[in-house]
Amino acid sequence: GLRTRRSHSVGVIVPDITNEFFAKIVRTLDIFFIKYNYSVLICDSNEDPELEERHIQDMFDKNVDGLIYVSGMEAISSLVKNPRVPVVFIDRSPKNAEFVVQSDNYQGGYLAGKELCEKGCTRPLLIRDYRMASTIQQRRRGFLDALAEYGKTCEGNFEITILPDYKSAKEKVAEFLGEKGCCFDGVFTTNDMMALGTIHALAEAGYNVPGQVMIVGFDNVSLSEFCNPPMTTVAQDTEQMALVAGEALLKLIRKEPIEQKEYVVPIHLEVRSTT
Ligand code: RIB
């Protein structure tokens, strides 16, 4: 038969494998591709652009048949410009991508803002990823639009920008509380790990959640349910995101047509005890 350089494997690259959001996507992709006899190479860039670049190069050297790129940042555009194999994007995405799967991030941000306002929040604080990826822009827009409907804003330094993890959120909120006291009564964080850090910083400073400050996270990782108090969050359907991306990559590898270039997965608000 024809000799091909392909390896019957696909690469998956994520920015933070310790975040359950990404771990769940990886698991579903692995189960999916194994069914089709593809092995899966998993790389974690630890949010480091150089490492990300290197992992991608490695996967090309190993002749992967396709790549699923989850929430990538830096290497994104060069990948789209020089596609050596088909690439499907999950979550954050560049323009001109062949195929993108993402949650309805605008609606997610909107529901978070509406929930806080309806439960009586008067001084909302937004804590978001400092990088303005498409997903974060949309969440922020949705959130601010909902606030505007209730006559509220985040103007006047009520928008904090940090790395999207537990530690950064905990430190930054502790610092904010130290400098300004508890001048806010509701927080939306653009992921759950940041919400968890916020809850812990508030608890350590002696503030009651949700009595003094309400919180809405984003993702619905299991920690959001197991933390104290269990957290209200915008749930992303990681399984559907991964399956849609897997199907699309298979089609691209087989050079089958894809009807649409973008797929938006619905989100829902999981109301628990922080609002
Ligand atoms: O928790 C990781 C976050 O980064 C998720 O919300 C995901 O959508 C990504 O943007």
Automatic annotation (TrEMBL):
The keyword Nuclease does not apply. The keyword DNA-binding applies. GO terms for molecular function: DNA-binding transcription factor activity; transcription cis-regulatory region binding. It comes from the Bacteria. Keywords: DNA-binding, Transcription, Transcription regulation. This is LacI family transcriptional regulator. It comes from Frisingicoccus caecimuris.
